[in-house]
Amino acid sequence: MPERDWYDQPCYTISVAATLVRMHPQTLRNYERSGLIEPQRSLGNIRLYSPRDIDRMRRIIRLTEELGVNLAGVEVILRMSDHMREMHRRMKEMEAEFEAEIQRMEEKLRSLQGEPQAEDS
Question: Among 67, 80, 71, which residue's Cα sits nearest to residue 27?
Fold first, then answer.
């Protein structure tokens, strides 16, 4: 199992999730209806929340209660944060690809110049 898979595993029912974030279950349903959270569903159509969902709800609480942001503002902030996280992930992938390509080109250049190939460290 990859390192962060556990973070996305749906494991909390709505009552447990509501208790963890100190909210009424109906508030969680409202957040789902407005698109702020997207719990997964069991085969029996029961909402199941992951640790990532719990953290997202805590972030919503902080934005609304501590910083006074309305739900429309929360939606924009969360969408932008998600987009930035995805861009960062893609940038890291590209960086790794570029580094591998540079290494491949350096090895090819060395072989063309008759130098010994570098050992993998």
Answer: 71
Q: E-strand spans in the chain?
A: 40-41, 47-48
- Kindly report the backbone phi and psi dihedral angles of residue 9, in degrees, each rounded to the nearest multiple of 5, phi listed first: -75, 125
Residues in CB range of 15: below 8 A, 6 or more apart: 25
Q: Let me know: does 31 contact 55? Beta carbons within 8 Å.
A: no
Global pTM value:
0.74
State the pLDDT at residue 4: 65
Q: Name the token pair of 91.
A: 């940038």
> 5-26 in b/e burial notation, b at 16+ Cβ within 10 A?
eeeeebebbbeebbeebebeee
